[in-house]
Design goal:
The chain is mostly helical. It is built from five helices and four strands.
């Protein structure tokens, strides 16, 4: 959930499975924790301690800075997956670097920033209009449409 220092209970098993499969290549890329706004990385350290997942320390907020995530993992960005609930930050960031992107629903709006929730709602309206107009996601080598 936003600004929480624990995994949202319905996602615990999925997060644990990601950690088993991908190991240290699971990374939290937040526009708050680990960002220039996070004084002395306090928020990042607290998240790492509670989630046991590395938090990216980065200089640019999404949608910029996707190259920092790839560099931190030492991987080609086309081999990475960016999962997020914001089109104009998470998805644009991942797409701009060639990552496979997955747009998720917000886990909860409880404790969420009101402006972010408002923007997210407008992003979803844009997406619905694009889909009705026939737009589809571009192909990506990590994803097979036959799945």
């Amino acid at each position: 959930a936003p600004y929480a220092h624990h995994t949202w209970p319905p996602l615990c098993e999925a997060v644990a499975q990601c950690r088993r499969v991908f190991g240290d290549s699971v990374l939290v890329y937040s526009n708050s924790a680990g960002s220039p706004d996070d004084q002395d990385s306090r928020e990042a350290c607290a998240l790492e301690a509670s989630l046991e997942i590395r938090v990216l320390r980065h200089h640019s907020k999404k949608p910029n800075g996707g190259d920092e995530a790839a560099a931190a993992l030492g991987l080609d960005p086309t081999r990475l997956v960016m999962i997020g609930d914001r089109m104009l930050t998470d998805i644009v960031c991942g797409n701009s670097q060639g990552m496979l992107t997955i747009l998720s629903d917000a886990l909860t709006e409880e404790g969420d920033n009101r402006i972010a929730a408002w923007v997210r709602a407008h992003e979803r309206n844009l997406l619905r209009n694009w889909l009705r107009s026939g737009y589809t996601a571009p192909p990506h080598p990590l994803f097979s449409s036959s799945l």
